[in-house]
């Protein structure tokens, strides 16, 4: 089965991001706005208990933290993605690294950059237009991160929650 | 904020139900297939910790169980809903009752009937057609219930996970 690990920012941030995703993100209906901690990966049923144990360990050692969201950026030309950048993101990096060690380690060709996608799979012209109009915008959103979630993907491409992990370190 | 409490059946059941929901359920893209334990309700931020405590208590005392799904039924004429019926549903009733006591108590005009919606808000003719063709079908699906989830609703009507509660009674 295909799993993924994400942070959902607070509702106000999700609503803000959805106002753009509705137009620019074909995954709009498949999953709420999120920060990916670990991209989709395959896991056998028999491996699940061990994975849960590892994630629980990570969540036991990590403390809740705040992140700020103030501007839009893009992965162009690598990927035709526009996103809300995550500032003060060291804690997100650390979570990503801890989750991606042990049995859930996978090599990735990309550097991990914490972000919330606004638009993806965009035509080059559209991406330039949209990014051009959004790149000078400044906003001032903050969200508390005190949990992450393990999700799994259904046949239609949408994601269902499997389990929440509360950050409960000191 | 608007919250709801659900059970997500195993992936095979969700995929089966989605094959119908795609055509007959306008909420298809808003939430994965689910058994509602508690309909949408309002909760102030200040009430959330107490609610979480109550739900945690319920989940500590409840044991995992299995449910069988073998046929389709309808709430017509009360509601234009077609659903997969939940058999051996006493455990689901008990969960519903425990969750709906204490601070999360709300009166409801409807009797609680555990179900997984396949279609809703259907025109009467369509409902009769679809139900007529599905009512004689028998299938043999089983799903383990070892957790429930607290969700909240975004402005666009879709639902995001807040927290998982693992059933960990003996």
Write the layout of secondary structure elements.
The structure is a homodimer of 170-residue chains.
Chain A: E1 2-7, H1 11-24, E2 35-42, H2 48-61, E3 65-69, E4 72-74, E5 82-85, H3 90-99, E6 115-119, H4 124-134, E7 141-145, E8 147-153, E9 159-166
Antiparallel strand pairs in A: 1-2, 1-8, 3-7, 4-5, 5-6, 8-9
Detailed description of the structure:
The structure is a homodimer of 170-residue chains. The first copy, chain A, has 170 residues and is an alpha+beta fold. The first copy, chain A, has a single domain, classed as Cyclic phosphodiesterase (Cyclic Phosphodiesterase, Chain: A, Alpha-Beta Complex). Helices cover 29% and strands 30% of the residues of chain A. Chain A is built from four helices and nine strands, in the order E-H-E-H-E-E-E-H-E-H-E-E-E. The first copy, chain A, has a four-stranded antiparallel sheet with strand order 2-1-8-9. Chain A has a three-stranded antiparallel sheet with strand order 4-5-6. In chain A, strand 8 and strand 9 form a beta hairpin. Chain A is globular, with a radius of gyration of 16 Å. Chain A starts with a strand and ends with a strand. The mean pLDDT of chain A is 95. The interface between A and B is medium-sized, with 23 and 23 residues.
């Amino acid at each position: 089965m295909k799993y993924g690990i994400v942070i959902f920012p607070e509702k106000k941030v999700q609503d803000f991001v959805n106002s753009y995703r509705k137009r620019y993100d074909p995954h709009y209906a498949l999953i709420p706005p999120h920060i990916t901690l670990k991209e989709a990966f395959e896991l056998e049923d028999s491996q699940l208990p061990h994975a849960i144990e590892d994630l629980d360990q990570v969540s036991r050692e990590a403390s809740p933290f705040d992140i700020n969201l103030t501007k839009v950026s893009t992965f162009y030309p690598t990927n035709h993605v526009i996103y809300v950048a995550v500032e003060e993101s060291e804690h997100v990096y650390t979570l990503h690294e801890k989750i991606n060690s042990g049995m859930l380690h996978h090599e990735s060709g990309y550097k991990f950059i914490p972000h919330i996608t606004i638009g993806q799979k965009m035509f080059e012209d559209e991406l330039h237009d949209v990014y051009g109009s959004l790149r000078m915008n400044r906003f001032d959103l903050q969200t508390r991160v005190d949990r992450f979630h393990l999700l799994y993907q259904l046949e239609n491409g949408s994601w269902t929650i499997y389990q929440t992990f509360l950050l409960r370190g000191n």
